[in-house]
Specification:
Chain lengths: ~240, ~240
DNA sequence: CGCAGAATTGATACATCTCAAGCTGGGTGG
DNA sequence: CCACCCAGCTTGAGATGTATCAATTCTGCG
């Protein structure tokens, strides 16, 4: 459950996380407050409605936020990637089911002390506002996908978004040939895209047949021509991340 | 374009808007900064991508945020109701098309001075974070609706949400018989729910035929049994606003 | 009155879902 | 070391919900 503790100064997500604008004295204080938690792929972090006595940044791996209806229909409403934050100031209970989609490591803080720290550290609150506004834009982008895109466009959009993010992480340009490991099962993709897993599988097969993507094994996606795939998302040519 | 100026102290949205926690001296300062703008139903406030040199709170009426694809498919990604805020600190350009769905009055601030005011007024930033987190929850709730609900459930959910909000505004309980004016055309409902206007019309007719709703004129909706309609949303019985 | 925008209704098409049958690859135990 | 197993995935055939195209019918208003 617990992994080796790192100093905040050496943290891999330091420059993008909530604490991005913290100065050394603040980092030292965070060092004393934080603890790590690890989850295996498939494990549940919290259930919607459960009391949640901590807040956390994702250090590595991916977690999903999802809602499930009484009859089992499920919608993933957000992915938490490295540097993303989990937990809402002032709220005691989780709003969504949080599940480790891959092996996951999170940097955690007990809620009360962390809220106190935030209250006396204005730039933390301002960083949090910035990150929340970005999440809101991403959620709204996803609303367009869920409400108006075809299955084919949904799959293409997913690959373009993951490919672009992956390229950014590797500090590469998102054009020409791009390859990445797809960290989601077909079922998770379906729940994220508002489709069934059969439809996801079929549309991936179609894109493969047309040469827009290649599969290496089940999980590695190669995009030989990123621009060509972008043209299949339905967004205007800039890829439409914001619009 | 400009309406009579009110003192902030008498503002009808004062207790729910961004400035909810401002004290009299701050309100006086806001009084000197603010100006009102009015739009007629159907007018565009800004286009996505346009430079936006102001931020604003909705005083009365409804505005919609929407995204449109090249081929004309449109998705409404948010409604701005009285007390909701438009504009993002640090961003010069509008991210979405903003349209007045009904006649609309907004309380506006030029961006630069307002950002400066926010920078030295921490509780404004904190109120903004709170409002943004609420919007994010609402957006994610809508993702479940768009991705997983049937047309019938979508219509029922829309009426329940508007009915509940309307009851809250009138300080009534949301049960038994509820009635409200529906401020959206069939087309706007379709764009909000990810449907066509024909499907919206048909499903409204079905709910009417089943006695779950009545129409008085085209725009006034009467819900004789709020609980019964809630049972049609697919959410668990608390209505699932948060989950 | 008669128009124009909004809404309803009908007939048909089609994308996606549903149910069902195999396939594939990696791990395990005999 | 091989056969088996199982979760994850693919593919097929048919059902179904929603979109599309096309008339009407309302409703408010000049």
């Amino acid at each position: 459950m617990t992994t080796a503790i790192k100093r905040c100064g050496e943290c891999p997500i330091r420059h993008r996380a909530l604490c991005a604008r913290c100065e050394p004295p603040e980092l030292e204080e965070l060092d004393t407050m934080k603890y790590y938690r690890s989850y295996e792929a498939g494990q549940t972090v919290v259930w919607a409605g459960d009391r949640m006595d901590f807040m956390a940044s994702v250090v590595s791996g991916i977690a999903s936020l999802s809602q499930t209806m009484e009859d089992g229909r499920t919608q993933i409403v957000g992915l938490l990637l490295p540097s993303d934050f989990l937990g809402r100031p002032g709220r005691e209970c989780a709003t969504y089911d949080v599940t480790a989609t891959t092996d996951l490591v999170m940097c955690c803080f007990r809620r009360k002390p962390f809220e106190a720290f935030m209250a006396r550290t204005p730039h933390l609150a301002s960083r949090m506002l910035e990150m929340t506004l970005d999440e809101l834009d991403a959620a709204r982008e996803w609303m367009l996908l869920l409400g108006r895109k075809t299955a084919r466009e949904k799959i293409a959009s997913l690959f373009v978004i993951i490919g672009r993010r992956d390229a950014a992480l590797k500090l590469k340009e998102a054009d020409g040939e791009i390859a990445f490991d797809l960290p989601l099962t077909r079922e998770a993709m379906a729940d994220y895209l508002g489709l069934t897993l059969e439809t996801v599988s079929r549309q991936i097969s179609v894109l493969k047949r047309e040469g827009l993507i290649r599969l290496e094994g089940k999980r590695r996606i190669v995009i030989p021509d990123f621009q060509a795939l972008m043209a299949e998302t339905g967004d205007d040519c800039d890829g439409g991340l914001i619009g």
